[in-house]
Amino acid sequence: MAHLDDLISTDILGYLRAQENKSFLRFITCGSVDDGKSTLIGRLLYDSKLIYEDQLASIEKDSKKSGTQGGEMDLALLVDGLAAEREQGITIDVAYRFFSTDKRKFIVADTPGHEQYTRNMATGASTADVAILLVDSRYGVQVQTRRHAFIASLLGIKHVVVAVNKMDLNGFSQAIFNDIEVEFRNFAKDLAFLEITCIPMSALKGDNVTTKSDRSVWYKGPSLLQYLEHVNVETESLDAPFRLPVQWVNRPNLDFRGFSGTIASGVVRVGDEIEVSSSAKRSKVKSIVTYDGALKAAREDMAITLTLEDEIDISRGDIIGHTEQVSQQADQFQAHILWMSDKELYPGRQYILKTSNKSVPASVTSLKHKIDVNDLSESSAKTLELNEIGVCNLSLGAPIAFDPYNVNRNTGGFILIDRQTNATVGLGMIDFALRRSSNVVWQDMNVDRKSRAEIKGQKPVLLWFTGLSGSGKSTISNRVEKQLLDMGRHTYTLDGDNVRHGLNRDLGFTKADRIENMRRIGELSAIMVDAGLITLVAFISPYRQEREAIRNLFNEGEFIEVYVNTPLEVCEQRDVKGLYAKARRGEIKNFTGIDSEYQAPQSPEIEINTAELSSEDAALNIITYLKEKGYLHRGVE
Fold first, then answer.
1. What is the pTM of this model?
2. What is the CA angle 250-252-253, rounded to 5?
3. Which residue(s) pair with 200 in the sheet?
4. 177-195 pLDDT, tens per residue?
5. What is the largest CA-CA distance in the chain?
6. Does 622 have pLDDT greater than 50?
7. Which of 137, 265, 541, 615 is catalytic?
8. CA 394 to chain centre
């Protein structure tokens, strides 16, 4: 390396102890495109003399080939590692770098400035203690500057440095610097920052980066490195309530039972009284076990195993805390969500919500509003698109232990995962539990589904008819119901058009409305099956993911998907209502099969092609299926 601590050669053990005892800071660089984020990190690494000689030689060589400084050393290349980044002179991915000084160790995340990579910036911000927000002094506060500031605040960063960069290009004008500082502070006055520090600098030349610059004698504050070495972020996390999300129940033998995880916040000591989130059971800490041996106390970010004085039931997904400061438990929340997928967020669609130690089914029950990052104003919306931020209500398939995100970012954050692709599609911050979440519970009933079905002499089931408009869904379902009634069975049919006259009359035909339409019918169908009925639903229901979500509402064998597989050209030829003709003329928007997609079932229980089979024969096939599978188990058939 270009520089070695003297202790390395004289006292290697002393050097290692000194490194181990240094405090630790995570920070992020963010801001608009070309504001100098990568150059700033390169300057910090270079001036801290923590660059290997071969790295330095490689950067000098690459600077001549793909640098942006006219052949001079381009420090941005130290962190712009992707070939595409070097070719375009931009940051695409999040680049993490480690460096240290005599006073502190650091991990810095260099994040992209382009709007399309906002999700990458959020990833870096989610674990940062400090945000360095770069602003090009020539252009001032930009849209992306505001977006990144808002996301940093939303993700719980309390300390922000506004690094007014490229001040050398305007002669280190104090007036320009003051104008930018006033503009940013006015914008950020409603954000949750505890501290805003503004520093004039030139990352390229090194002014006010590691040392104070003679070119800005009017600036009386610290250099950037001085600020980073002394900013206090540890007191806040250590003063927070103790939280241990249980990742693993450690049971290597009959004589040991411990609960392993990484401390999310606070401090725990041997003898502390603790409480488990899910059961409210209490005990005392018997020992704190780590890889390096037993400890008397442990703090945030340490991986530990707790043993307790009492045998109480604790599982992965629980959170252990002190008895006087326990975490909450709920299954419905209000939360802020940053959407990270090219596919829109749709209320009613099923996702997987994952916290630090638990995954549960979840859906957005309502999108209250989305937030404009330019002025923090709120506007109504039915969906969220890529990089948009909204406030939503969520409903979970099972309760989780949590803290509000503004209290504890480690136990108040979550991600949303697409059930089909397993891709992370959203980043969420819990605001609070909805009051009805803890007050509304399942009421035990004396009469259950089995008894309702037995008195009717049938096995309750949902027949879900799906297919294009004009495929014959309603005609076939009507014939099936008529035959079932003739056999003395108890039935009810929910038709797509009929339901829109009442229950779903407030819904249109956008994708968001279609998803909500299906969600409501799915819930209503589940109630009818619970009543012991053979329920028939005739809906286009174009989206595979929603049909699968409805299937998950039912027990095994209670959901039968009937795919009425009629070709589009045959449906258009029938066109009894003239809808296809209107859609072709552009008079009807979002019409399935024309300008809105239909996702065919992949493995339906029953598939029927009415171009080859009459409605009478189709109905007979379905009745035969029900008989063979035991749904019509008693009575005259």
1. 0.70
2. 125
3. 164
4. 999 999 999 999 988 899 9
5. 99
6. yes
7. 541
8. 12
Residue that has been written with the tokens 């035959």 in this structure: 483
Nearest in space to 546 (alpha carbons), one of 530, 522, 527, 524: 522
Residue 541 is a catalytic residue: yes
Mapped onto helix, strand or coil, the DSSP state of residue 472 is coil
Q: Any idea which residue has 């006292």 for tokens?
A: 11
Q: By C-alpha distance, which of 393, 461, 469 is closest to 433?
A: 393
Tokens standing for 270?
Answer: 């041997």
Query: How many residues does the structure list for the chain?
Result: 637
Residue carrying structure tokens 């505001």: 146
Measure the CA–CA gap between 531 and 178, rounded to whole angstroms: 70
Q: Locate 588 and state its tokens.
A: 């009807």
Q: Express each pLDDT in 12-23 by its tens digit.
A: 666 566 666 677
Cα dihedral 512, 514, 520, 525 in deg (nearest 10): -150
**Structural domains of the chain, ranges and CATH numbers in brackets:** 6-232 (3.40.50.300), 237-322 (2.40.30.10), 333-434 (2.40.30.10), 449-628 (3.40.50.300)
In the chain, the amino acid numbered 498 is: N
Indicate the DSSP class of residue 115.
G
Could you give the angle at the alpha carbon of 466 between the alpha carbons of 619 and 460, nearest 5°?
A: 65
HSE value, Cβ hemisphere, 13 Å, CA-based, for 390: 27
Residue type, position 99, single letter = F
